[in-house]
Amino acid sequence: MTEGKEKRAHKRISISRIITTIMLYIMLFVIVILVIYPLSFTVSSAFSDSNSLSGLSVLPFTHSVKVDTIDAIALGENAYALPDVEKLPTDKAIYVVIPQTNTGSATLAIGDNAALPLRMKAKDGTLSEPAEGKLKEGRIAGITFNGTELVVEKTYTNATLPTYMAFGGFSLIQFKKLFEDTNYKYWFFNTFKIACANTVISVLCTTVAAYIFSRFRFRGKKPMLMSMLILQMFPSFAGMIATYVLIWRLGLLDNLFGLILVYSAGSIPYNTWLIKGYLDTIPRSLDEAARVDGAGYFRTFRTIILPIARPMVTFLAVTSFTGPWMDFILPRLLLKSDVNKTLAIGLFEMINGRENNYFTQFAAGAVLVAIPFIIIFAINQQYMTQVLSSGAVKE
Protein backbone atom coordinates (compact mmCIF):
# COMPACT_ATOMS: atom_id res chain seq x y z
CA MET A 1 0.00 0.00 0.00
CA THR A 2 2.74 2.40 0.91
CA GLU A 3 4.65 1.73 -2.34
CA GLY A 4 1.48 2.27 -4.38
CA LYS A 5 0.81 5.63 -2.73
CA GLU A 6 4.41 6.70 -3.31
CA LYS A 7 4.16 5.76 -7.00
CA ARG A 8 0.91 7.72 -7.43
CA ALA A 9 2.38 10.72 -5.63
CA HIS A 10 5.52 10.55 -7.78
CA LYS A 11 3.36 10.30 -10.89
CA ARG A 12 1.35 13.38 -9.87
CA ILE A 13 4.57 15.32 -9.24
CA SER A 14 5.94 14.30 -12.65
CA ILE A 15 2.76 15.40 -14.44
CA SER A 16 2.74 18.74 -12.60
CA ARG A 17 6.38 19.31 -13.54
CA ILE A 18 5.64 18.59 -17.19
CA ILE A 19 2.68 20.99 -17.20
CA THR A 20 4.74 23.65 -15.42
CA THR A 21 7.59 23.25 -17.90
CA ILE A 22 5.23 23.48 -20.88
CA MET A 23 3.60 26.63 -19.47
CA LEU A 24 7.02 28.15 -18.85
CA TYR A 25 8.12 27.54 -22.45
CA ILE A 26 4.84 28.94 -23.76
CA MET A 27 5.33 32.05 -21.64
CA LEU A 28 8.90 32.48 -22.87
CA PHE A 29 7.74 32.05 -26.47
CA VAL A 30 5.05 34.70 -26.01
CA ILE A 31 7.57 37.09 -24.43
CA VAL A 32 9.98 36.61 -27.32
CA ILE A 33 7.31 37.04 -30.01
CA LEU A 34 5.38 39.92 -28.46
CA VAL A 35 8.11 41.82 -26.60
CA ILE A 36 11.70 41.01 -27.46
CA TYR A 37 11.31 40.58 -31.23
CA PRO A 38 9.30 43.82 -31.85
CA LEU A 39 11.71 45.79 -29.65
CA SER A 40 14.84 44.41 -31.34
CA PHE A 41 13.30 44.89 -34.80
CA THR A 42 12.47 48.54 -34.02
CA VAL A 43 16.00 49.23 -32.76
CA SER A 44 17.46 47.48 -35.81
CA SER A 45 15.24 49.52 -38.16
CA ALA A 46 16.26 52.76 -36.47
CA PHE A 47 19.92 52.12 -37.28
CA SER A 48 19.25 50.99 -40.84
CA ASP A 49 20.32 53.01 -43.88
CA SER A 50 17.17 52.04 -45.77
CA ASN A 51 14.30 54.52 -46.14
CA SER A 52 11.47 51.99 -46.40
CA LEU A 53 10.36 48.55 -45.26
CA SER A 54 11.50 46.96 -48.52
CA GLY A 55 15.12 47.37 -47.49
CA LEU A 56 14.65 45.77 -44.08
CA SER A 57 15.19 42.15 -43.22
CA VAL A 58 12.82 40.03 -41.16
CA LEU A 59 15.67 39.21 -38.78
CA PRO A 60 16.73 42.13 -36.55
CA PHE A 61 20.18 43.64 -37.02
CA THR A 62 20.45 42.25 -40.56
CA HIS A 63 19.82 43.96 -43.87
CA SER A 64 18.92 42.83 -47.36
CA VAL A 65 21.78 42.98 -49.88
CA LYS A 66 21.32 42.54 -53.61
CA VAL A 67 23.59 40.11 -55.43
CA ASP A 68 26.54 41.51 -57.33
CA THR A 69 26.20 42.04 -61.08
CA ILE A 70 28.77 41.99 -63.87
CA ASP A 71 28.56 44.18 -66.98
CA ALA A 72 28.94 42.24 -70.23
CA ILE A 73 30.94 43.85 -73.07
CA ALA A 74 29.65 43.52 -76.63
CA LEU A 75 32.21 41.96 -78.99
CA GLY A 76 29.99 41.82 -82.03
CA GLU A 77 26.58 40.59 -83.08
CA ASN A 78 25.31 38.27 -80.33
CA ALA A 79 28.81 37.95 -78.87
CA TYR A 80 29.74 39.15 -75.39
CA ALA A 81 32.60 38.87 -72.95
CA LEU A 82 33.18 39.11 -69.21
CA PRO A 83 36.80 40.31 -68.94
CA ASP A 84 36.69 40.61 -65.14
CA VAL A 85 35.79 36.93 -64.63
CA GLU A 86 38.59 34.40 -64.99
CA LYS A 87 36.61 31.28 -64.18
CA LEU A 88 32.89 30.64 -64.21
CA PRO A 89 31.65 28.93 -61.03
CA THR A 90 29.61 25.78 -61.49
CA ASP A 91 27.94 25.77 -58.06
CA LYS A 92 26.13 29.11 -58.27
CA ALA A 93 24.79 31.63 -60.74
CA ILE A 94 26.38 34.86 -61.85
CA TYR A 95 24.29 37.90 -62.75
CA VAL A 96 25.27 39.55 -66.03
CA VAL A 97 23.95 42.90 -67.27
CA ILE A 98 23.20 42.57 -71.02
CA PRO A 99 24.09 45.79 -72.90
CA GLN A 100 21.81 45.27 -75.93
CA THR A 101 19.19 42.97 -77.46
CA ASN A 102 20.42 39.54 -78.53
CA THR A 103 18.99 36.15 -79.37
CA GLY A 104 18.99 33.20 -77.05
CA SER A 105 21.87 31.56 -78.94
CA ALA A 106 24.45 34.27 -78.25
CA THR A 107 27.96 33.45 -77.06
CA LEU A 108 29.72 34.68 -73.97
CA ALA A 109 33.48 34.66 -73.45
CA ILE A 110 34.79 34.24 -69.91
CA GLY A 111 38.12 36.04 -69.47
CA ASP A 112 40.68 34.80 -72.00
CA ASN A 113 38.84 31.50 -72.59
CA ALA A 114 36.95 30.64 -75.73
CA ALA A 115 33.36 31.84 -76.03
CA LEU A 116 30.64 29.46 -74.84
CA PRO A 117 27.09 29.22 -76.21
CA LEU A 118 24.51 31.19 -74.26
CA ARG A 119 21.13 29.48 -74.22
CA MET A 120 17.79 30.44 -72.64
CA LYS A 121 16.04 27.97 -70.31
CA ALA A 122 12.29 27.62 -70.85
CA LYS A 123 9.74 27.23 -68.03
CA ASP A 124 9.62 23.48 -68.61
CA GLY A 125 13.42 23.21 -68.23
CA THR A 126 14.28 22.77 -71.89
CA LEU A 127 16.89 24.92 -73.58
CA SER A 128 15.79 27.32 -76.31
CA GLU A 129 16.64 27.05 -79.98
CA PRO A 130 18.58 29.86 -81.66
CA ALA A 131 15.43 31.64 -82.83
CA GLU A 132 13.63 31.41 -79.50
CA GLY A 133 13.86 33.77 -76.57
CA LYS A 134 15.63 37.09 -76.31
CA LEU A 135 17.56 38.90 -73.63
CA LYS A 136 16.36 42.48 -73.69
CA GLU A 137 18.64 45.46 -73.30
CA GLY A 138 19.23 46.39 -69.67
CA ARG A 139 18.00 43.01 -68.42
CA ILE A 140 20.11 41.08 -65.92
CA ALA A 141 20.64 37.43 -66.75
CA GLY A 142 21.16 34.83 -64.04
CA ILE A 143 23.64 32.49 -65.76
CA THR A 144 24.85 29.05 -64.71
CA PHE A 145 27.45 26.74 -66.32
CA ASN A 146 26.36 23.15 -67.01
CA GLY A 147 29.76 21.93 -68.23
CA THR A 148 29.34 22.58 -71.94
CA GLU A 149 27.36 25.77 -72.31
CA LEU A 150 26.00 28.74 -70.42
CA VAL A 151 22.35 28.66 -69.43
CA VAL A 152 20.23 31.72 -68.68
CA GLU A 153 18.12 30.45 -65.79
CA LYS A 154 16.08 33.63 -65.37
CA THR A 155 16.14 37.30 -66.27
CA TYR A 156 15.72 40.15 -63.78
CA THR A 157 15.43 43.88 -63.55
CA ASN A 158 17.36 45.88 -60.98
CA ALA A 159 14.27 45.94 -58.75
CA THR A 160 13.72 42.17 -58.89
CA LEU A 161 17.30 41.05 -58.31
CA PRO A 162 17.68 38.36 -55.63
CA THR A 163 18.77 39.50 -52.19
CA TYR A 164 20.44 37.85 -49.24
CA MET A 165 20.64 38.77 -45.58
CA ALA A 166 23.83 40.14 -44.07
CA PHE A 167 24.68 41.36 -40.59
CA GLY A 168 25.76 44.92 -39.97
CA GLY A 169 24.88 47.89 -42.10
CA PHE A 170 24.36 50.17 -39.09
CA SER A 171 23.94 53.86 -39.81
CA LEU A 172 22.83 57.04 -38.03
CA ILE A 173 21.31 58.50 -41.18
CA GLN A 174 17.73 58.03 -39.93
CA PHE A 175 18.42 60.10 -36.80
CA LYS A 176 20.03 62.80 -38.93
CA LYS A 177 17.04 62.92 -41.27
CA LEU A 178 14.69 62.91 -38.28
CA PHE A 179 16.10 66.18 -36.96
CA GLU A 180 16.84 67.83 -40.32
CA ASP A 181 13.71 66.95 -42.32
CA THR A 182 11.05 67.07 -39.58
CA ASN A 183 10.15 69.10 -36.49
CA TYR A 184 10.98 66.18 -34.24
CA LYS A 185 12.85 68.34 -31.71
CA TYR A 186 9.73 70.49 -31.22
CA TRP A 187 7.51 67.41 -30.89
CA PHE A 188 9.86 65.89 -28.32
CA PHE A 189 10.14 68.99 -26.12
CA ASN A 190 6.41 69.70 -26.41
CA THR A 191 5.65 66.22 -25.10
CA PHE A 192 8.34 66.53 -22.43
CA LYS A 193 6.90 69.85 -21.17
CA ILE A 194 3.37 68.44 -21.12
CA ALA A 195 4.53 65.32 -19.25
CA CYS A 196 6.47 67.30 -16.63
CA ALA A 197 3.66 69.81 -16.06
CA ASN A 198 1.07 67.04 -15.85
CA THR A 199 3.23 65.17 -13.33
CA VAL A 200 3.66 68.17 -11.04
CA ILE A 201 0.01 69.28 -11.15
CA SER A 202 -1.40 65.76 -10.84
CA VAL A 203 0.82 64.78 -7.92
CA LEU A 204 0.15 68.00 -5.98
CA CYS A 205 -3.62 68.07 -6.52
CA THR A 206 -4.13 64.35 -6.10
CA THR A 207 -2.08 63.87 -2.93
CA VAL A 208 -3.67 66.88 -1.22
CA ALA A 209 -7.18 65.77 -2.21
CA ALA A 210 -6.50 62.18 -1.14
CA TYR A 211 -5.15 63.38 2.23
CA ILE A 212 -8.27 65.48 2.82
CA PHE A 213 -10.62 62.63 1.94
CA SER A 214 -8.61 60.16 4.04
CA ARG A 215 -8.13 62.20 7.21
CA PHE A 216 -11.02 64.68 7.46
CA ARG A 217 -14.74 64.36 7.96
CA PHE A 218 -16.99 66.91 6.28
CA ARG A 219 -20.44 67.16 4.77
CA GLY A 220 -20.70 65.74 1.26
CA LYS A 221 -17.54 63.61 1.53
CA LYS A 222 -19.19 60.33 0.61
CA PRO A 223 -21.26 61.76 -2.33
CA MET A 224 -18.13 63.41 -3.73
CA LEU A 225 -16.18 60.16 -3.55
CA MET A 226 -19.01 58.25 -5.18
CA SER A 227 -19.31 60.91 -7.90
CA MET A 228 -15.62 60.57 -8.74
CA LEU A 229 -16.00 56.80 -8.83
CA ILE A 230 -19.06 56.98 -11.11
CA LEU A 231 -17.22 59.33 -13.48
CA GLN A 232 -14.67 56.57 -14.13
CA MET A 233 -17.44 54.35 -15.52
CA PHE A 234 -17.73 56.52 -18.64
CA PRO A 235 -15.02 56.47 -21.34
CA SER A 236 -13.17 59.67 -22.11
CA PHE A 237 -14.67 59.64 -25.63
CA ALA A 238 -18.06 60.50 -24.16
CA GLY A 239 -16.93 63.98 -23.13
CA MET A 240 -14.50 64.68 -25.95
CA ILE A 241 -16.75 67.13 -27.84
CA ALA A 242 -17.56 68.97 -24.60
CA THR A 243 -13.84 69.12 -23.82
CA TYR A 244 -13.14 70.56 -27.28
CA VAL A 245 -15.84 73.24 -26.88
CA LEU A 246 -14.60 74.15 -23.39
CA ILE A 247 -10.99 74.50 -24.54
CA TRP A 248 -12.17 76.50 -27.56
CA ARG A 249 -14.16 78.89 -25.36
CA LEU A 250 -11.15 79.36 -23.11
CA GLY A 251 -9.02 80.23 -26.15
CA LEU A 252 -6.62 77.35 -25.55
CA LEU A 253 -6.93 75.50 -28.86
CA ASP A 254 -3.53 74.73 -30.36
CA ASN A 255 -2.03 75.57 -26.98
CA LEU A 256 -0.02 73.18 -24.83
CA PHE A 257 -1.55 74.55 -21.63
CA GLY A 258 -5.02 73.46 -22.78
CA LEU A 259 -3.79 69.89 -23.17
CA ILE A 260 -2.05 70.04 -19.76
CA LEU A 261 -5.30 71.25 -18.21
CA VAL A 262 -7.28 68.35 -19.67
CA TYR A 263 -4.70 65.74 -18.63
CA SER A 264 -4.38 67.05 -15.07
CA ALA A 265 -8.11 67.46 -14.44
CA GLY A 266 -8.96 64.12 -15.98
CA SER A 267 -6.52 62.20 -13.80
CA ILE A 268 -7.66 63.61 -10.46
CA PRO A 269 -10.73 61.36 -9.77
CA TYR A 270 -9.07 57.98 -10.30
CA ASN A 271 -5.73 58.94 -8.77
CA THR A 272 -7.46 60.44 -5.72
CA TRP A 273 -9.12 57.09 -5.04
CA LEU A 274 -5.79 55.33 -5.61
CA ILE A 275 -3.81 57.48 -3.18
CA LYS A 276 -6.66 57.63 -0.64
CA GLY A 277 -6.73 53.84 -0.47
CA TYR A 278 -3.02 53.82 0.35
CA LEU A 279 -3.30 56.63 2.92
CA ASP A 280 -6.10 54.77 4.69
CA THR A 281 -3.61 52.01 5.53
CA ILE A 282 -1.35 54.47 7.40
CA PRO A 283 -2.27 54.50 11.11
CA ARG A 284 -3.96 57.67 12.33
CA SER A 285 -1.90 57.41 15.52
CA LEU A 286 1.02 58.88 13.57
CA ASP A 287 -1.06 62.00 12.83
CA GLU A 288 -2.16 62.26 16.44
CA ALA A 289 1.42 61.90 17.70
CA ALA A 290 2.56 64.67 15.34
CA ARG A 291 -0.23 67.00 16.48
CA VAL A 292 0.65 66.31 20.14
CA ASP A 293 4.16 67.50 19.31
CA GLY A 294 2.71 70.73 17.91
CA ALA A 295 2.65 69.96 14.17
CA GLY A 296 -0.22 71.30 12.11
CA TYR A 297 -2.14 69.44 9.43
CA PHE A 298 0.08 70.64 6.58
CA ARG A 299 3.30 69.84 8.44
CA THR A 300 1.96 66.42 9.42
CA PHE A 301 1.09 65.77 5.78
CA ARG A 302 4.47 66.97 4.54
CA THR A 303 6.78 65.39 7.11
CA ILE A 304 4.91 62.27 8.24
CA ILE A 305 2.40 61.09 5.65
CA LEU A 306 4.22 61.87 2.41
CA PRO A 307 7.48 60.06 3.32
CA ILE A 308 5.51 56.92 4.21
CA ALA A 309 3.37 57.18 1.08
CA ARG A 310 6.35 57.94 -1.12
CA PRO A 311 6.24 54.61 -3.05
CA MET A 312 2.63 55.22 -4.14
CA VAL A 313 3.32 58.89 -4.89
CA THR A 314 6.32 57.84 -6.96
CA PHE A 315 4.13 55.39 -8.86
CA LEU A 316 1.62 58.18 -9.48
CA ALA A 317 4.38 60.48 -10.73
CA VAL A 318 5.72 57.85 -13.12
CA THR A 319 2.30 57.05 -14.60
CA SER A 320 1.48 60.76 -14.93
CA PHE A 321 4.76 61.33 -16.75
CA THR A 322 4.46 58.41 -19.16
CA GLY A 323 0.78 58.95 -20.06
CA PRO A 324 1.13 61.98 -22.42
CA TRP A 325 3.91 60.29 -24.41
CA MET A 326 1.54 57.59 -25.65
CA ASP A 327 -1.72 59.55 -26.01
CA PHE A 328 -2.85 60.33 -29.54
CA ILE A 329 -6.54 61.28 -29.67
CA LEU A 330 -6.57 64.38 -27.43
CA PRO A 331 -3.46 65.99 -28.98
CA ARG A 332 -4.87 65.25 -32.43
CA LEU A 333 -8.11 67.01 -31.46
CA LEU A 334 -6.67 70.06 -29.71
CA LEU A 335 -3.35 70.76 -31.46
CA LYS A 336 -3.21 71.96 -35.06
CA SER A 337 0.15 73.55 -35.96
CA ASP A 338 3.14 71.37 -36.73
CA VAL A 339 5.42 73.02 -34.14
CA ASN A 340 2.87 72.36 -31.37
CA LYS A 341 2.33 68.69 -32.16
CA THR A 342 3.28 65.96 -29.74
CA LEU A 343 5.39 62.94 -30.59
CA ALA A 344 2.41 60.64 -31.04
CA ILE A 345 0.95 62.83 -33.80
CA GLY A 346 4.24 63.63 -35.51
CA LEU A 347 5.44 60.03 -35.62
CA PHE A 348 2.06 58.74 -36.78
CA GLU A 349 2.02 61.12 -39.74
CA MET A 350 5.33 59.65 -40.93
CA ILE A 351 3.60 56.36 -41.75
CA ASN A 352 0.05 57.55 -42.40
CA GLY A 353 -1.11 57.57 -46.01
CA ARG A 354 0.21 56.09 -49.21
CA GLU A 355 3.03 58.58 -49.71
CA ASN A 356 4.25 58.59 -46.12
CA ASN A 357 6.29 55.43 -45.66
CA TYR A 358 9.13 56.66 -43.48
CA PHE A 359 9.06 53.58 -41.28
CA THR A 360 12.75 53.66 -40.47
CA GLN A 361 12.56 57.30 -39.36
CA PHE A 362 9.52 56.33 -37.30
CA ALA A 363 11.62 53.61 -35.64
CA ALA A 364 14.42 56.10 -34.94
CA GLY A 365 11.95 58.44 -33.28
CA ALA A 366 10.51 55.60 -31.22
CA VAL A 367 13.98 54.65 -29.99
CA LEU A 368 14.60 58.22 -28.81
CA VAL A 369 11.25 58.22 -27.00
CA ALA A 370 12.46 55.25 -24.96
CA ILE A 371 15.36 57.24 -23.47
CA PRO A 372 13.37 59.26 -20.87
CA PHE A 373 11.32 56.14 -20.05
CA ILE A 374 14.47 54.13 -19.34
CA ILE A 375 15.92 56.90 -17.17
CA ILE A 376 12.71 57.43 -15.18
CA PHE A 377 12.12 53.73 -14.51
CA ALA A 378 15.78 53.03 -13.71
CA ILE A 379 15.95 55.84 -11.14
CA ASN A 380 12.61 55.13 -9.52
CA GLN A 381 13.11 51.38 -9.36
CA GLN A 382 16.20 51.81 -7.23
CA TYR A 383 14.58 54.58 -5.18
CA MET A 384 11.37 52.65 -4.52
CA THR A 385 13.38 49.62 -3.43
CA GLN A 386 15.25 51.72 -0.88
CA VAL A 387 12.05 53.29 0.42
CA LEU A 388 10.19 49.99 0.72
CA SER A 389 13.10 48.30 2.46
CA SER A 390 13.38 51.10 5.03
CA GLY A 391 9.89 50.30 6.37
CA ALA A 392 7.74 52.29 8.76
CA VAL A 393 6.04 51.83 12.14
CA LYS A 394 2.54 50.50 11.62
CA GLU A 395 -0.05 49.07 13.93
Can you give a write-up of this model?
The protein has 395 residues and is of the alpha/beta class. It folds into 2 domains: 69-161, no CATH class; 173-390, MetI-like (MetI-like fold, Orthogonal Bundle), CATH 1.10.3720.10. Helices cover 54% and strands 13% of the residues. The protein contains 12 helices and 12 strands. The protein has helices at residues 2-46, 173-181, 184-215, 221-231, 240-249, 256-279, 284-292, 297-308, 310-326, 329-334, 343-350, 359-390; strands at 62-66, 69-71, 73-76, 79-82, 94-97, 102-103, 107-110, 115-120, 134-135, 140-145, 150-156, 163-167. Strands 2-5-10-11-8-7-4-3 form an 8-stranded mixed beta sheet, with no helix packed on it. A two-stranded antiparallel sheet has the order 1-12. A hairpin with a 4-residue loop joins strand 7 (107-110) and strand 8 (115-120). Helix 3 (184-215) packs antiparallel against helix 9 (310-326). The two termini are 51 Å apart. The relative contact order is 0.10. Mean pLDDT is 78; it is low at 390-395.
Low-confidence stretches: 390-395
Helix count from the secondary structure assignment: 12
Percent of residues in helical segments? 40-55%
Q: What is the CATH topology classification name of the largest domain?
A: MetI-like fold
Q: Which term fits the overall shape?
A: elongated
Oligomer description: single chain
Secondary structural class: alpha/beta
Q: What is the beta-strand fraction?
A: 5-15%
Structural domain count:
2
Q: N-to-C terminal Cα separation, in Å?
A: 51 Å
Sheet of most strands: 8 strands, mixed
Looking at CATH, the homologous superfamily of the largest domain is MetI-like
What's the CATH C level of the largest domain?
Answer: Mainly Alpha
The counted number of beta strands is 12
Order of helices and strands: HEEEEEEEEEEEEHHHHHHHHHHH
Spatial order of the strands forming the largest sheet: 2-5-10-11-8-7-4-3
